[in-house]
Amino acid sequence: MELWFLGTSAGMPIRDRNVTSIALTQNDGTFWMFDCGEGSQHRLLQTPLKLTKLTKIWITHLHGDHVFGLPGLLSSRSSLGGTEALQLYGPPGLRELLETSLRISETHLNYPIHITEIEAEGAIFEDANVKVEAAKLDHRIESYGYRIEERERPGVLNAGWLAEQGLPPGPVYGQLKAGQDVTLADGRVIRSVDAVGESLPGRIVTILGDTRPCANAVKLGRGANVLVHEATFAHALADKAHEYGHSTALQAAQIAHEAGARRLLMTHFSSRYTREALAELETEARQVFADADAAIELTPYPIPL
Amino acid sequence: MELWFLGTSAGMPIRDRNVTSIALTQNDGTFWMFDCGEGSQHRLLQTPLKLTKLTKIWITHLHGDHVFGLPGLLSSRSSLGGTEALQLYGPPGLRELLETSLRISETHLNYPIHITEIEAEGAIFEDANVKVEAAKLDHRIESYGYRIEERERPGVLNAGWLAEQGLPPGPVYGQLKAGQDVTLADGRVIRSVDAVGESLPGRIVTILGDTRPCANAVKLGRGANVLVHEATFAHALADKAHEYGHSTALQAAQIAHEAGARRLLMTHFSSRYTREALAELETEARQVFADADAAIELTPYPIPL
């Protein structure tokens, strides 16, 4: 899994920052997006990510700087040959926004879209690889955070040891990795537990929508390998942050600290901050949480164990 | 008046071309836009044009690549301090598209918007400086072209001759330019007709939405100083152009020729054409109309007399 920030600007784009969108690559070569501000499809063109590999979009809230890129991106995914179903999650209103835009513009998609409007907090998606939980945050409009928990993964095959046993790579490697013991032609039994290393623990990525500091931010971020939290303002503007339903860099760091997260990536910066000023937001945050960075657009952030 | 192409790509953005939008600067320092594909506000950030100076937006048709940038651009105009009313013109459906997007995203504008949905062809706007006429084109969806006729403007003041008469610059220069004769303190009369050169003829700019070649394109483009016509395909793909309601570069040139336009600027190029391939579209067009160019984005095109 890898995070790509497609936009880190709050409210409107500026010359070197776009409005909010984040891509999260999956272990199977597909990727998900979290929010889709205007111009997100343009930003994707500057990454290795291909729209046809996008399978799910999670919307945190319906403010324009988080959703106005949706209809165009859906249209381009079709033009580029996407035929697989696309699943969208977000607050109520998402369906009307999308269906109205697609109907009036006579946009015909060559794939089905499934829209889930979130009605209750809790687990909203799970499959063999991952579980996603949503909870309400504290903003001027209904806003959600998402906690993505990867399941425990099989350990790494010990190829060197297998070679010593005289077992060349082949389908049996897959059987061993899947937990099956294998009997060789000479009668020897190779046990899966000997061939495969320790299971890899699942990683946790928490991506929050716009919010004031709140208990659900801590809850969703509990023990996260990476917590993505907005930091619209420096703490000198804490009153303004509160008035507009946002957080300061210091507050984002306090949430990361309380949650026991491993790493904090801050985003959603007011357009008043130049790239240089973002370094000051980092300094502010690191007073209470050392591993805090202002996210840089179009740079991959791997999710460490 | 000056044209800026903010996007020249058909259907979807590619790395070096955005979807359709054109800015037309006015003599009073304001500007108008024609269409507003996703990312148009981002393109404006790369020009000297300021969103607060935008007074009118003319939409040719409601396909997404011509309108999905509207809600975000309107929102940013407000955030950037725009308080003057904004007038929008376009086909029926424009109001619902905009009002739904603004309502669901809870976007509150600090200025009034006035939306005129075009109901009949003909003159749809005029003031002291300009007259705008709309007519239906031939596309898969209701699509309009706009003919902007500048009124005759006062000639240039002959400052050298006025200095010879001993008349220094001052408010009387304005009176003379406005057509009034002026009596000096010594009793001499300076006649406006002597002080002001020939009136400048108004210029004509015609901007057409997506269309197959059609009679109304010729009618709107009659004698235009600049005709902006789509050229989605090279003529080798004339069948495809017809099927999708578009024109080829050769057809655009034929329209410019029939209309007796002075200059043709082509836009709305299929994403299949590289920048180099656009030179071939120009070669094709110039076979029948010499002054034809493929519009380049983010470059000002003055409107010659």
Name the quaternary structure.
homodimer
Question: pLDDT average of chain A, as an integer?
Answer: 96
- Report the order of strands and helices of chain A: EEEHEHHEHEEEEHHEEHEHEHHEHEE
Helix content of chain A: 25-40%
Distance between the termini of chain A: 10 Å
List the domain count of chain A as a whole number. Answer: 2
- Please mark out the parts of chain A with pLDDT under 50 across 5 or more consecutive residues, or reply none: none
Q: Structural class of the helix and strand makeup of chain A? A: alpha/beta
- CATH architecture name of the largest domain in chain A: 4-Layer Sandwich
Largest interface: A-B, 38 and 38 residues
Number of helices of chain A: 11
The CATH superfamily of the largest domain in chain A turns out to be Ribonuclease Z/Hydroxyacylglutathione hydrolase-like
Order of strands across the widest beta sheet of chain A? 6-5-4-3-2-1-16
Function (chains A, B): Zinc phosphodiesterase, which displays some tRNA 3'-processing endonuclease activity. Probably involved in tRNA maturation, by removing a 3'-trailer from precursor tRNA.
Binding site for Zn(2+) 1 (chains A, B): 61, 63, 139, 210
Keywords (chains A, B): Endonuclease, Hydrolase, Metal-binding, Nuclease, tRNA processing, Zinc
Organism (chains A, B): Paenibacillus montaniterrae
What does this structure look like?
Chains A, B: Keywords: Endonuclease, Hydrolase, Metal-binding, Nuclease, tRNA processing, Zinc. Chains A, B: This is Ribonuclease Z. Chains A, B: Its cofactor is Zn(2+). Chains A, B: Belongs to the RNase Z family. Chains A, B: One of its GO terms (molecular function) is identical protein binding. Two copies of one chain form a homodimer. The first copy, chain A, has eleven helices and 16 strands. Helices cover 27% and strands 24% of the residues of chain A. The first copy, chain A, has two domains: 255 residues, 4-Layer Sandwich (Metallo-beta-lactamase, Chain A); 37 residues, no CATH class. The mean pLDDT of chain A is 96. The first copy, chain A, has 305 residues and is an alpha/beta fold. Chain A has a seven-stranded mixed β-sheet with strand order 6-5-4-3-2-1-16. A seven-stranded mixed β-sheet of chain A has the order 7-8-9-12-13-14-15, with helices on one face. In chain A, helix 8 packs across helix 10. Chains A and B meet through helix 2, helix 3 and helix 4 of A and helix 2, helix 3 and helix 4 of B.
